[in-house]
Specification:
The chain is α/β, with parallel strands linked by helices. The protein has one domain: Transcription Regulator spoIIAA (2-Layer Sandwich), CATH 3.30.750. It is built from 3 helices and 9 strands. The strands form 3 sheets. Strands 1-4-5-7-6 form a 5-stranded mixed beta sheet, with helices on one face. It has a two-stranded antiparallel sheet with strand order 2-3. The longest helix has 23 residues. The protein is globular. The relative contact order is 0.18.
């Protein structure tokens, strides 16, 4: 099954925004928290052998490597990764970071793939789940 959300920004553990201070900053982070919460709820609700989180924004900084560090907070949030780990997804896919890197992993061990076309160099990628390790791409 697939659960999707655009996700949102906010940054990553140790270098992230928080929901205190100015009203605009509170709203920015609260929006990310709300979307992460809904993603977690939807992933938990899937009754499927394989669960995939489909996002626009990145849940991990590893797939942003190649982007300017200064814009990481606007490309993703660790709150998405926490939701994915708590829900137990098998794979997370995202785009948005066109100068990023293809592979990452959440703290809980979920494989994350940046599938933006400039990163993967093709129109799509197929991921095979064979039960013998992390999902692997098949060139498409």
């Amino acid at each position: 099954g697939i659960a999707g959300s655009k996700g949102f920004g906010g940054g990553f553990a140790g270098v992230s925004g928080s929901d205190f201070g100015e009203p605009e900053m509170k709203a920015f982070i609260r929006h990310t928290k709300a979307l992460a919460g809904r993603l977690e709820t939807c992933l938990h609700g899937l009754d499927a052998d394989v669960r995939i989180a489909l996002l626009h924004y990145s849940p991990v900084p590893e797939t942003l490597r190649g982007e300017p560090l200064e814009i990481y907070p606007f490309l993703g949030s660790y709150l998405l990764a926490e939701a994915i780990d708590r829900a137990g997804a098998d794979l997370a896919l995202h785009g948005h970071a066109h100068r990023g890197s293809e592979q990452g992993v959440t703290a809980g061990g979920v494989q994350v793939r940046n599938v933006s076309q400039p990163v993967i160099g093709r129109a799509y990628a197929l991921f095979c789940f064979d039960g013998d390790g992390p999902p692997g791409p098949t060139v498409g």
